[in-house]
């Protein structure tokens, strides 16, 4: 009897010692967990001075909230019959709720609160859809039938389909790499490139094509918008306004002034309404362009045979330039991370979920615009398609067949879309200007400094457009030079950051697509340069009769 009592007492003592050991181990783990930051402006961040990391924020690279809660918070420890004491149980329950709400404990640079891209983080899936639509479709869609004139039916449709699926895959990569490293959000394309390729190499590889794409597109939009405003004025006024009309350069200046006025909106989220207008107008005028074209009688001398030059070399470069036009039709990836940076992100509600939801809707609508424009435009005009694209064809072949009201409405929608697209493509440039200013002065830009930067950028784009008025017709060269941003770099960055198993299917797929994208970039750029030289740098986006 005494022996059994002794055994029970020994068991109780062992259980008590085991509980004390577990409690001491739990307290040791809790020491390494950073406390809730005071003065935290958003529930997802812990702010530290620029370029420094506090001692409490120096966590192990392998640490994640998921791993922490799964290791600490178990049913046994939180059950009423568990060996952990009630006070410690309350601490762990509260800690788990905090981690689930705070998420990755992202350390943000306080300077981000002063910059246009990251100043506001209240975006959602609707904003993502508006911005992606506005950035992903525009005037470049109207020149797709020009590419089909050199590629023909089969290769034109195949190339367009491959490019669409390829860029959709790389967009998915960028969305998922936005928070690839716990505790860090890559808010800009260049930041992600630096994380993948290194600080210096990332800047060299990504800065030029992204800035060239943003600034080059903004300049091309000034040219297209100014030319379209001129045509709209001619259609509306007819013979009544021919006494002293504005010159083309003066129409460029009018359009630039409107862009500068709209560019005073402070940040990326504040232009969501403009992006919605740009998306609606783009969907409308691309649909009107191909519907009006296929509803009219086709030219008598129409042919669907691919255009061929007198020499094999000339034909090859023409085909490469056409493929570059198709590549340029899928722009906007340089803005994907910036758009996602405007959204809040926590462990329970990560930013990639609403971003991908909005992007899927946007690119479904983009496909519903691009494919009908390319196929319908080529069916309506064949290889007689003017170099300026669909609007040039409408003006040249059907100026007397289509009611002036419909034609004028189409051109006006193009103007509205160009005004909206200018804002979203210029925002990364505004962000770079203000980042340089705030880094030097350690204070946010005043309204006068911000306005000065945007006025300066608008007029610089205007002067470049006046000096190089053929810029809007070199879509092949633009597509070639900026192709790595959309088709190549995301694949390389996935391999370097996610590190898939060597020689696996994922590893082979991304390396192959990346290398192929770089090769296409070089080939399409050569085709674009040849096209510029061959045309004597005299191309215009519109060539009305």
UniProtKB/TrEMBL annotation:
Location relative to the cell: Membrane
Example of a GO cellular component annotation carried by this entry: membrane
Organism encoding this protein: Dendrobium chrysotoxum
Residues that span the membrane, as ranges: 201-224, 271-292, 312-330, 361-382, 402-426, 447-468, 474-496, 508-533
Residue ranges of coiled coil: none
Residue spans of biased composition, Polar residues class: 42-60
Keywords tagged on the record: Amino-acid transport, Membrane, Transmembrane, Transmembrane helix, Transport
Domain of life: Eukaryota
GO biological process, any: amino acid transport
Basic and acidic residues composition-biased segments: 1-27
Domain Amino acid transporter transmembrane: 122-533
Protein name per its UniProtKB record: Amino acid transporter transmembrane domain-containing protein
Database matches in Pfam families: Aa_trans (PF01490)
Region (Disordered): 1-60
